[in-house]
Specification:
Length: about 80
Amino acid sequence: MANVSEDQSREGRGSTLARVGKYSLMRALALGISVVVAVYITILIANMGGHVDQIKIAMIDEGIAMAVSIDEEIRRF
C-alpha cells in the first residue's frame, strides 16, 4: 500500500508542476502582449496619429520661408 500512495504522490507532484509551469507561461505571455499593446497605444496617442509629424514639417517650412524672406541677397533674385 505504501507503494501505491508513493506513486500517486509522484504523479501529483509532476502534474502540479506542469500546471504551475503552464499557468506561469500563459500569464507571462498575456502580460507581454498587454505591455506591447499598451506601449503601441501610448505612442500612437502621444504622436496624435501622425499629426505631430505634419506640425514639425510645417514648422520647418515656415522657418525656411522666414529665413529666405529676411535675407537681402535672396530677395534680390
